[in-house]
Amino acid sequence: MPRSPDHPVDPVFTQRWSPRSFTGEAIPESVLLSAFEAARWAPSASNVQPWRFVVATPLQPLWEPLLGLLAPRNAKWAAKASALIVILSDRFVERRGEVVENGSHSFDAGAAWSNFAHQALRLGWHSHGIGGFDRAATRDLLAVPDEFAVEAVVALGRKGGLDQLDPEFHAAEAPNSRRPLAETVFVGRFGEPAFDAEKDVA
Ligand SMILES: Cc1cc2nc3c(=O)[nH]c(=O)nc-3n(C[C@H](O)[C@H](O)[C@H](O)COP(=O)(O)O)c2cc1C
Predict the structure, then answer these.
(1) Which atom of ligand 1 is nearest to the CA of 19?
(2) Does ligand 1 have an atom closer than 6 angstroms to the CB of 14?
(3) Which residues form the Nitroreductase domain (predicted)?
(4) CA–CA separation, 115 vs 62, rounded Å?
(5) What contacts 116, CB < 8 A, 6 or more positions away?
(6) Domain 11-162 belongs in CATH node 3.40.109.10
(7) Residue 16 neighbours by CB distance under 10 Å
(8) Which residue's CA is the closest to the ligand 1 atom numbered 29?
(9) pLDDT value of position 195
(10) CA-CA 20 to 30 A from 38: which of 10, 50, 66, 83?
(11) What is the mean predicted confidence (pLDDT) over 162-170?
């Protein structure tokens, strides 16, 4: 069932969802470049752009070992993706000649991944974030320097049909919903809904 927003939004926001059925077809480099270009323009604290990405496609030697580091349940469906992208973020930043912790490295990498996912969708490719994977082993496999956090893996591909998906995932293969804004946006203090009918936010 298509998602129906409570308030008007650009359709790209409700049309993006995370399928598990992928066709496995090869992804053009132009699609990857556009999606990464969108990620590139994400905002970040002091414009330090802490995000980095490592891409693997099925023909590369990295594919099988990386797939093997996903939680087995994730690896089952992600094997038919067209690309796996590991998202990293630099935990440190240089400020006034001193290297200090960057408190927003994950927040900023999240903004970049959102840009990536929405641009990919515009081009007809779906993405699915994956947190269930072995971060330490991924760090070793990719020779990620210590100062970078291993944030997530993203599976990217063309959405397939149910016939291309293991039956154990069929029940969940549909866009989900969201809690209402009244439980998410507050005014004055935490927990006080900003937008219920009784309140005037002006
Ligand atoms: C950081 C992150 C980690 C996730 N980890 C997993 C995962 O390990 N396995 C999985 O099947 N889905 C995973 N997801 C997908 C979420 O469950 C999904 O985005 C969420 O339910 C919202 O659904 P939607 O993306 O279809 O709108 C992850 C998503 C994100 C952003």
Answers:
(1) 26
(2) no
(3) 14-158
(4) 25
(5) 35, 36, 38, 39, 85, 127, 154
(6) yes
(7) 17
(8) 129
(9) 84
(10) 66
(11) 98
